[in-house]
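tool=predict chain=A
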Amino acid sequence: MKCVIIDDEPLAIDVIESYILQIEGLEIVAKCNNPLEAITILNKDEVDLVFLDIEMPNLTGIDLVKTLDNLPQFIFTTAYPQYALDGFNLNATDYLVKPIPFHRFIKAVSRAKEKYQLERGNSSNQVTTKIITEEKNTNKQGFIFVKSEYENIKINCEEILYIQGLKDYIKIYCSTTDKAILTLSNFKEILDKLPSTSFMRTHRSYIVNISHIKALQKTKIILHNTVRIPIGETYKNEVLKRLGV
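tool=predict ok
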């Protein structure tokens, strides 16, 4: 993976560089202490991963991310933990707080490598996806696996209440737990895994398990746990048709 380090502190760049040199599969193509210079490099060169400081003169790391159209994966490396939520909302691969322990750096890079391989459809991921899809189509297994943090979590389809979309992430709400499962995915990917006879999209941001529907209102679906899911105008006719209303 081709990497760029962006930090206004030379010592911080040296630390990241020393870490990268110890990890196989990483190649440093540029080191920048000026974020404006970094924009030129990122727009011109092929880059797979950026190690990015936040507090820098002229342009913060957060603002730099927002200026780029084709942004590679990036890992924030900062002394300010209060920006973690911003990093999550910007779809950062990870968020490392200085001083960065080497073992924590390795975990962040491992996560970046997994995403890198997934985006390029490596053979092992293709085989896994094919197996899971085939099991779903035959409707014999009744479960799916989703990646959350550093684990592949098994979810029984019948326990899924509804799914909410959040940009590049989705939240899966189940009847067996109060805490939603957050995973990097989109509606197309998750719908391909789920049995189509049991799930339907009711809104651009929601998928519902039909078996958990308790009642239907004009613009909302009420689930057995009393949660109300909106019905988008675009999906209204299909929802009514699926429910036989």
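Helices lie at 10-20, 35-44, 61-67, 84-89, 102-119, 123-138, 187-193, 236-243. Residues 102-119 form the longest helix (18 residues).
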